[in-house]
Amino acid sequence: MRKRLCLLLIALVILVSSMPSVAFASQSRKSYFSKNYKLSGDGARDIVAVAMAQKGKTESKLHYTEGWCADFICDCAELAGVSDLIPRSGDCSGLKRETIACGAAHWNYKTSSTVKNVRMGDILVLNHGEHVALVESVGTTYIHCIEGNWSDKVSYVDRYKVNSRNNNWRQVITTVIRPDYSRLKAPDKPAITSVVNTADGITVKWNRVSDADCYRVYRRVGDGGWKLLKTVNTTSYTDQSQISNGKKYQYKIIACKTVGGTVYKSAYSDIKTIYRLTRPAISSVVNSATGKVTVKWANNTEATGYQVKYVTGTTTKTVYVKKGSAVSTVLSKLTKKSTYKVSVRAYKSVNNKNYYSAYSAVKSVKVIK
């Protein structure tokens, strides 16, 4: 009986030892990785950039202690900021399973219709889960991969597109996995649509970016440095923070989105400039003569001039007073018995461009003369 039990145990040991080994992704060795790479915000490019920076590093240099092809991809994903798409898992098959669970596309590899679809950032599963490889690029004959645990180091490997030419069992491509890198792409650059003086501040407006969940508003006063004013989830912001009459202000915006705790930021919008002008206050509007109204207001010492608007019914007219020290003007050729709504705004001319204040509160007058 003992002899039979011993024979069974020996047979079991032989059977287990003959099975192919599986690489368990239970080691994180990213602290030993070279930092000689630059992240761009493009997930596919970034994970490949991290991986390529490790090319030639050996198992001992990276301090891996067991089969580590899946570990290597997981470590690259964490450093590239795409671990929400490629989570750490127990082995190559687990890496496949968990990455697909995070929204990755996947398909069985063929040498005809699907081979042309392989691209940078894809993960190749070889021999049904014995090895995994990260695609760096695709050529005419080969799929160029960067792989951990190939010849006990990080290797750049050319794999034939035609599986029949991949004779080694570890070289047969069985599945292609494509993480949804688009989820981690930085939002498009916003565009500022207007910057205007208002009664209580300076209002900046911009277009909505489809995949952004917030926007950061930056301001520069005069020729000073840029400072973050506010983070908002709307497409406008009124700046009331220590603004002074006559001063120059510049604004720019970035769009942001957060995925799994990582913030992805767009490029800055184009810069928009404005000069702050407080709105004038009308002191009086009087029908001073036949068909005439005299308008008076408080002077703005930073103004180059003023624009007076007067409205009756559906008719709107404006007149410019091209003198910054002016405090009144006369509107003429007005219609008797008509009521006019009058408002005034200041303007400042800089380099042949006018910057306007908000309009004053409206004053009404009826022409009786």
Helix-strand sequence? HHHHHEEEEEEEEEEEEEEEEEEEEEE
Domains counted in the coordinates: how many?
3
Radius of gyration: 35 Å
Low-pLDDT residue intervals, each spanning 5 or more residues: 9-23
CA-CA gap between termini: 129 Å
Secondary-structure content class: mainly beta
How many helices? The count is 5
CATH topology of the largest domain, by name, is endopeptidase fold (from Nostoc punctiforme)
What's the CATH first level of the largest domain?
Alpha Beta
Helix content: 10-25%
* Beta-strand segment tally: 22
Gross morphology is rod-shaped
Summed over residues and divided by their number, the pLDDT gives a mean of 89
CATH architecture of the largest domain: Alpha-Beta Complex
Strand line-up in the sheet with most strands: 1-6-2-3-4-5
CATH superfamily of the largest domain: endopeptidase domain like (from Nostoc punctiforme)
Largest sheet: 6 strands, antiparallel
